[in-house]
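Q: What would this chain look like folded?
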Amino acid sequence: MRRGERHGPAPRVRGRRTGRHGRGARGRRAGRSGRVVRGCGTHPRGCAIPRRRVRRRPGKGRTVTSGGASEQLAQAAEILVPLAEEATVRIHGAEAGNPLLGSGFFVAPNWVLTCAHVARAEGEVTLVGAPRKEVRVGYRDQLLAGVVEWAQPSGPGGIPGQSQGNDPGYGAGSAGQGGAARGPGGWAAPDLALIRLVDPLEHPCVWLTERTAKGYTTNPVAYFGWLPLGGVLMPYSGRCVISGQLGVGGGGLLRLSNDDEMPQGLSGGPVVDLVRGEVIGVLQARRAERDGGLAVSIQQLRLLPTAENPADDLYHRVMTAHDLYHADHHRFLLNRDFYGWTEAHSEIGAAAGRALTPGRRTALLGLLAQLPPPSGARALGDVVTEVRGGAGQGFAVAPRAWRDGLGLLYDLRRGSELEAVLRYAVLAATAEHPRPAQESHERELWEWAQSTAADQGLSMLFRNSLIGERMSRLRARHAVVPPQAGLEPGLRARGEAQLEIIPRGWEPDRFDWRVTVSPESGEVDCVHEDFRGTAVADLPARLAAPLAEAFRRCDEPGYVAALQLAVPGSLMAFAADTWRLDPDGGTLGALRPVVVRRTDPPPDTDPAVAEERLSRWRTLHRLQPAAEVLDCEDSQAQPLPEDAELRARPREMLPVLCRSSGAAPEALHRLLRCGYSVALWRRDPIEPRQVCSDLHRGVPQAVLAARTAAGLPAQLASLRAAVAEGVPETFWSGALALLYDDPTRPLPGTDELLETP
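A: My prediction, written as structure tokens:
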């Protein structure tokens, strides 16, 4: 489906007692990216895929407060059901025919949550890092490639030690056509799986609850999925209530009443609390030969295996992406037609009696997501206990992320919920983290707590206590943090490989080229050159052997030489890092650092400018660079500062360009003219309405990991390798490029005669 197309009317199958849904939220259109395995206008087995209707947002300012409880519930469903439907997907097998396996739903950008018995029909435990199973994700009229990153059923049978009373057996809803149930007791928790899309895609995401399962009530819920009906794959939604919970603290399974039908095929779909407006479970099983069933509590996701490196922890990766998605789309209203879960929470009155409005809650979760994760479940539990004034009891699964701890502060039996939430935010911002937090992120969270306390009219005594506690914790933390090492200058010069691309003015689609190496001595050797004009499509094959020879001359044990791509300003978007020199290998930029240099830089006619450029270069290689986005603010394009202002910026500033892809040659020329030899910029253009906060967050984190400018080429190569592996958190860096024009080692002059060996 092309961007901008509207879907035709979508037939909807409802349960027997499901009311009529009216207008609702408009889902985000799918982007053009994403690996479409095959069109899904017609299911391989003859099931047509109806297109969903693009809905308009509800009337602005409407609040669900009038009428009785049933009318309020109907209005809440009118708002929430379309949001959940737009994020519910089909899970298909990757084998021939792509059979329907069940349902799932987007929980974060490029992440789908479903049941393990849907994603791994054979039922084995799949640990993080194990061989991955390929599946297909049906979204609208597309089948997208996906891999099962984690799936863990405990096997058939109920929760150990728990009785299901006199109810008949539950069968895991095997969603294939005519799939058989798994036998009495269904599949025990967690019975969950996470599927990662192979390529980036624009899509909506549901809102996952951060509350503990003990907070679930008998609120009405809606559940969603897909099923084949008369040769057509149909979206389905039904209604029921939570009639009970199984497991200690209700952290295992949710019993769903028999108010509505649950056909086979819905396993893996979301269960939405219609009063709170959040997904609280994953539909798992239906009762044999009668209505009702079971859902897995969202808290079971916390059973994901922990990782030795916190940055690799899958639970934190997914939850962070979830919270940042909602925070970004609430903060940056670039699309007037966008209507999300935070807006829905306001309209249905989900925050009635709560300490935070829906907007403040979304903002807080986004700010907490920017922090590194807690140093462990025990450390997080200690923070929650200190804020609550006592330990929580009866929780089935310990909290793992900052959002989980926040959920334990709702409905306190004593004390002020708002004061507890604000103090929790301060303790989170000043806690010991497994890796250093960005100072700006901690400061943003503190400023949020300050402004919220003032806006809500909390006492001066309490606000002063927050200030005092923050300062004392920061002093204690700084007292034990060792100084950073490894930022000293004096890095040994290494061999470098250069590829110069020379345009042919009379043949715009053909180029001359030269491959050279610069050993540690600084002398330049020409490996090979060709001035006969090579077509763009033929460059990777023609350059494979010369570049391989250049790399052999420069690489050392433990050191992979960077490739310096030397191009004129008009070719700054030349994407040599995407080449595959070996058809069976990875992209060049994922295998080694690739940086860009200008063959036509501004002339250094003024000795003061040349000295300033050299001074900035040395400062960036001695101190931690401070990344600053110059052309974008709040996801809106901004003009670059004037030259005088650029020259006055601190020497440790690292300029970043987010929305200047079209004007990159001129923008980078100005930066070079003002003394900047290192800069990051987004090479590909983005839509004016596209939220770009992922780049604004990702670049400072990458620069922090690089420590100095000397580490930026390797850090960018690491990001490109992660993009090639399909790591969703790095997709923001897919088109990132690095200007790295070393003034101490100039490129060989184009007029200089080089000897070919």
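Residues 460-480 form the longest helix (21 residues).
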